[in-house]
Structure formats: structure tokens, C-alpha cells
Amino acid sequence: MLDDTGLLENMITRMQQPLLPFSFHLKQFQQLWTIRQLFRLSQYSLIGLSLGVPLSAMAKPNPANSSVITPAPIQVKTKTYEETLPNGLKVIIREDHRAPVAMTQIWYKVGSTDETGDELGLSHALEHMMFKGTSKVPGEELSRISGKFGGSTNAFTSSNYTGYYQLYPAQYVPLALELEADRMQNLQLRQQDFEPEMRVIMEERRQRTDDNPKALAYEKFRWMAYPTSPLRQPTIGHMKNLEGLKLDSLKRWYQKWYTPNNATLIIVGDVDPKKTMYDVRRYFGDMPRRPTPVRSDVSEFQHIGERQMDVTVPVQIPALYLAWNVDSLQTADNPDKAYALALLQSVLDGGLSARFESRLIREQRILASVSCNYDLFSRGSSLFTITAIPEQGVTLEQARTAILAEVEKLKTDPITPAELERVKTSYLAELVYSQDSIAGQAQLIGILESADLSYKIIDTLPQKLNQLSVPYMQQIAQQYLVRDNLSTMYLRTPDSKTVAKAQNPVQPIPQQAPSATASATTTDPVSSTNAGSNP
Predict the structure, then answer these.
(1) What pLDDT, on a 0 to 100 scale, did the predictor assign at position 284?
(2) Which residue would you say has higher pLDDT here, 372 or 55?
(3) Which of 179, 236, 250, 309 measures 20 to 30 Å from 513, CA to CA?
(4) Which residues are catalytically annotated?
């Protein structure tokens, strides 16, 4: 562990020296290289190698050889410590000692939903500028320091949060904390950095959206799916917004939202909570808290019925987009409703045995691909979305009819006990695998905390899912997955006069009577709402 006194100053001094100091001799460089290699292995779930377990010990035992000793399975035990400083900074530390690395993430509760229509893109633009230096760490020094000491750093912006992360060998966690605390209060926002960075962001907008017909169409789709919620706003902003953004607006945004009482600091890895909290208090404890604005309500507040959009774009493959306005765990009057929606999503699209894959792709051959998504942990309301590509010779209308037929069967056809057990197991397994890495653990904690949900929800999730019955899930499908809640977009090719297949004709679904609506918000795999920097 480095000496606590003048940590960052020592780091910069070392970098400025033409020769490495004696304390940083070859052996330590070899150790640092080994740490980085072990982290790469752990990212690919080769935990046994990173823990020094030989391949022979991880192999399956040979029943014919009774002398083979079967090693006990590797168990990952995590402990989580939580504390809120007097200035309002919430700190969550999770121990994970599988590899000698640690990740620090700081999440600010601000995103594109907090922006006004004429200044869209502020949160994302400020995220970029957070890498342009402070009075202590000028210019691009933050990224250089990170690379010099075996780390990596980046950031991400979404509708509801902005986050920054640093990954280091565990001994450099104090360095990460000092760098993060420094730019929370001492950021230098200069015009000479702002103008070229805005050109970078405009190019990012062009590459990700304007020059991507599907992404541009999906941006329009979100405006239709969220008729009254600010979740419709693109995180990066429109080109017109970017051209009009001013540096003074970023300065005001920084002063409004970047304060310890609006942030959650998450540290996951090979750390000791007691020692780590000492460093957290040292670097963040003296920061003053400031009042923050009241955040926007991101729930749909006006029901306008079924919506459809027909878009022709220069793509080779047509696509279909469906979205129902539904509740999330945060907005549902009964949390079981959100849990039921999560399981219904897995019934439709939870692996090779799910209904979409087995029925519409393999049996009926109506769809070439299909994906169903629901954001259980969204801040505000959510969307239950389905995106699909029809098989050659199948029209978008036929694909929609087939999909809606399967959705209707959720309300009438019983889910068998075996199917329900498979869905619950699959959902929980996916959640567990997503937390295999320290980055995955930190990300899930940050998402929950930024949505004003506790990370402790994960501990009770198996019990919540197990108590759901089939009749209750059918009731939830009848409440939410109705035409009166539905938005549809047909994404057509310029020559999309496709002749429908003569075989396997799809029967139309009878129109339902209007039903009570819920609310709205989620992302789609075609176009993520997250925008990240790459300093």
C-alpha cells in the first residue's frame, strides 16, 4: 500500500521523472503485469486460474479412478458494507477477493431526463468534459495516470444517471478515490477544451445515430412510445442541441448536480472496508453538500391509446418493434406486478426453450430472430418491448399478428409447472452470471441505487419470484399487455413489397376492448440509451 501522504502528488512526480524510481523495479512491474493478466482471465470466468487452481483440479473427476480427490467447488463469498457520510455521500463497499483488483464507480443521479428540450445532451457533454483536467490534475493527466499504474477509466451516461469508473490493482484504490474526489469539486471547464470536445460528440452522434438508419428510427420510436415522459429524449441530444450548447450551461449543470449528496460511491474488489472507508472519509469527507434541483417525474401521466408508426429507411432487412407501457419495480403499486412482468418476459424469450424461439422461429418459421426486453429496475415506469425480424417471405404485419397471438396465449394458456420452474431458474441464473465480474456487481448496485431502489433487493429476489403463481401472472398479462397500451413501428426497406408466405397463414387476433394503462420506460438492444466516453 502506498503512503497516505501526498498520494496523487507522488504519482505525478513519478510520471514526470525520466527514469523509474528504485521502488518501482522490474519485479513490481512483473507483478503488475500479472495482476492485469489475472483480471483478464477473471473477466472470462477463468476464476480457477486467477486463484492459482490448476486445470487438473478444475477438470471433471474420473469415476473409474477412486484415488482422484475431487476438490471442493470454488465459492465466491462477498460481504457488503454501507455507510453515508455527513455530507450525504452514500458509500457501498463489496469485498471480492478472487483477484487482487478493485473497481471504484461513482454514480450521479442526473441524466437526460433532467434536461430541458433546448439543452438536451448536457449530461453527456459534461461526462466528456470530466476528463479534461482539474487544477491538480491538468489536461489529459487523469487518463495517463490511470494507464501508468495499470488501471483503466471511462464513463457512461443514461436517461437517469451519469457514472464514472476506475479499475486498478487493489493497492491503488486510494489513488482512484483521490482522483475522483478531485474532479467532483475542482473541474476546470475551459473553452479551449469545450469546442473540440463538442465536435467529438457531434461525430459520435453522427456515427451512432444519424448515419445508422435503425438507430435513428428507434429514436423516433421512443418518442412515440413515451408520449408524455422525458424518457423519450435521446441521451446524446439532437444535433441542433449540440450545435447550440454553451460552456456556461455545462458549468451550471456541474454546480447543480455534482455534489456528494447526489452521488453514490461503489467500490468492489480485493479491499478491506475499514481501511477503504478511512480513505473515503479523507478525500470526500470535507466536501460541503449543496441543495440539488427536484428531479423530473419520468412516468407516463397521460394515456393516449394504441399508436403505430410506419418508417421506410435504407436498410436491407425489415424489422418490427412493439412496446407496451408498463410499470417498473419502482412505480408498481404492488412489487409483485413488476416481478410477474419479468417472468412473463422470460416465458416469451428466455432461451432456446422459450415460446418465441420454439414456436415462431423453429416450428412455424415466421421469424428469423426475436428479442423481448423488460427493465425491472428502471427509475420511473418501463416498457415491455419486442423486436423481431421476419423470415424471408413473411410480411411485418404477419410477424406482428403471430407475436401478438403468443402474447394473448400468456393470458389464456396455462404455464406448466416445469415451464415456470425453468423460467425462474433461467432468470436467476442470468442475474447471477451478470455479477460474476466485479464490474457487473458494481453496475447492478449502481443501477438499483440510482433508481432509488436498494441493492439489497437482489437478496430477496428468489423468494419474490418463487411466490408468484400462474393465475397471478396471467392476471398481470391481462392488465398490461393490451392493445390500448401498445406502440408499433414497422421498419420497412425501400423495396419492402414482400409477398407473404402461402403456407402457415397467420390468423388475425380479435381486437380487445380498451383497458387501464400503466406507465413507461426501458431500452432496446437496437439502440442503447447509454452513451460513453473513451478518453
Answers:
(1) 98
(2) 372
(3) 309
(4) 127
Question: Burial letters for 65-89: b for 16+ Cβ neighbours within 10 Å, e otherwise?
Answer: eeeeeeeeeeeeeeeebeeebebbb
- CA 414/CA 412 separation, integer angstroms: 6
Phi-psi sector, 334: left (phi>0), alpha (psi -120 to 50), beta? beta
The 10s digit of each residue's pLDDT in 95-124 is: 999 999 999 999 999 999 999 988 999 999
Rounded to whole angstroms, the Cα distance separating 396 from 176 reads 51
Residue 298 grid cell? 419520468
Q: Do 80-285 and 307-496 have matching folds?
A: yes
* Helix pair angle (7-16, 173-185), 10° resolution: 100
Q: What is the pLDDT of residue 99?
A: 96
CATH class of 80-285: alpha beta
Give the 3-state secondary structure of residue 471. helix
CB 71 within 8 A of CB 57: yes
> Which set of grid coordinates corresponds to residue 529?
440509451
Concatenating the DSSP letter of every residue in 422-439 gives HHHHHHHHHHHHHTSSHH
CATH architecture of the region 307-496: 2-Layer Sandwich (3.30)
Measured CA to CA, the distance from residue 149 to residue 327 in angstroms comes to 45
pLDDT mean over 1-5: 41
User: Whole-angstrom Cα distance, residue 450 to residue 466?
Assistant: 26
